[in-house]
Amino acid sequence: MVWSALLCHPVWVAFTALLAFVVRVQRRGPWLPRACPVRLRGKTAVVTGANTGIGKFIALDFARRGARVILACRSEARGTAALKEIRDKTGNADVHLRLVDLSSLDSVRGFAERILAEEEALHILVNNAGVSGLPKQITKDGLEVSFATNHLGPFLLTNLLLDLMKRSAPARIVTLASVNHKKGQVDFSHFHGENLTYHMDAIYNHTKLHNVICTKELARRLEGTGVTANSVHPGIVMTEVLRHYPFTVRVIFNLVGFFFFKSAEEGAASSIYCSVAEEMEGITGKYCDSDCSLVLPAPLARDAALGVKDFEISERLTAKL
Ligand SMILES: NC(=O)c1ccc[n+]([C@@H]2O[C@H](COP(=O)([O-])OP(=O)(O)OC[C@H]3O[C@@H](n4cnc5c(N)ncnc54)[C@H](OP(=O)(O)O)[C@@H]3O)[C@@H](O)[C@H]2O)c1
To answer: Sorted alphabetically, which InterPro entries does this protein's record hold (predicted)?
Structure first.
């Protein structure tokens, strides 16, 4: 009784509302996509995993700016729903759905072939699609499924589209990594599902470290071509990213996230910043934080020799036999 009287006290209610407001404002980063006047008319962008979460808001932003946008999704039904929503909200009819399953190298090759056949140019590639918490599974390419989806599939896709991007320069490649890459380790036997411990986000963290390492090495290889490559952390974002986690973990994530985590729209900001902001013109090989500042990634991601080795092994594993 005393507690309920206290909790309903106007001072308490006002204080809680003020705190919630402050937390809500803090969630938003300092760079707001809607305040950025850059237009993308005449530009073509590919966004993977664009049917939901962060990817959908990245694609929506590009469509608003007038770009031709290719939504690279694995589900026709979910992709079509997002396509309709983005066209309706932006009035941009030049938004298209193309299907790709990034965990399959054949599917990635088929998707890339279609893009190369249909598109005259490609100015922005956002490697957004990703998974976390999948149980162990080896794909028909002999790769561990999370590494295939998060690292090796997007790695192959990027390499297959590189010549088109070079011809379209200036062009930008943006790969969604995560601050969790700092907890990752490099062991190349992981790619085949060996020496892995499946617990919560352990596998995910390794895959995200490869994202940052290989993006940095790609940037080095692209020097002088007019194509930049950067990796980003979107923040902790309320999306479906925990869909493979236990129910209780998802409940806690959503409860805490309601107050403290970014919305999918807010989480798209750092990727949009790297893709379109004038401040990022010519900037390459960097790791961008969720507040759009360029920060140092983990020491392993700055090891140039490891970058060369990781890139070469990833090339070998994704080469057509
Ligand atoms: N949310 C966060 O807190 C957070 C933090 C750091 C980094 N990130 C990164 O941000 C990116 C976007 O995540 P999100 O939070 O928006 O997650 P999400 O809501 O789960 O969306 C993931 C997207 O990836 C697609 N995808 C998954 N596996 C795929 C495959 N094999 N082939 C093609 N597409 C596939 C999904 O398609 P379906 O809908 O068909 O499954 C979906 O469109 C990911 O790379 C994630 O690692 C997220």
So the answer is: NAD(P)-bd_dom_sf, SDR_fam
Ligand 1 centre and the CA of 33: distance in Å? Answer: 20
pLDDT at residue 27 tops 70: no
Long-range contacts of residues 244-253, Cβ cutoff 8 Å, at least 24 apart: 244/131, 244/132, 244/133, 244/134, 244/135, 245/132, 245/133, 245/200, 249/200
Task: Please report the pLDDT score of residue 8 as a whole number.
Answer: 76
| 286 inside domain | yes
* H-only helix segments in the chain: 2-7, 10-27, 53-64, 76-90, 105-118, 145-147, 153-167, 202-221, 247-260, 264-267, 269-276, 304-318
Beginning with the edge strand found earlier in the chain, give each strand of the sheet holding 44-48 in spatial order.
95-99, 68-73, 44-48, 124-127, 171-176, 227-232, 287-288, 294-295
Find the catalytic residue in 204, 245, 273, 287.
204
Q: Is the CB of 237 under 6 A from ligand 1?
A: yes
Structural contact between residues 219 and 228, judged by C-beta atoms closer than 8 angstroms: yes
**Nearest atom in ligand 1 to 102's CA:** 32
Are 273 and 292 in contact by the 8 Å Cβ rule? The answer is yes
On the question of pLDDT at 122 being above 80, the answer is yes
5 inside domain: no
**Interatomic CA distance for residues 25 and 4, integer angstroms:** 28
Kindly report the CATH number assigned to the domain that includes residue 86.
3.40.50.720
**pLDDT digits 0-9 by tens, 208-231:** 999 999 999 999 999 999 999 999
Q: Range of 52's domain?
A: 31-318
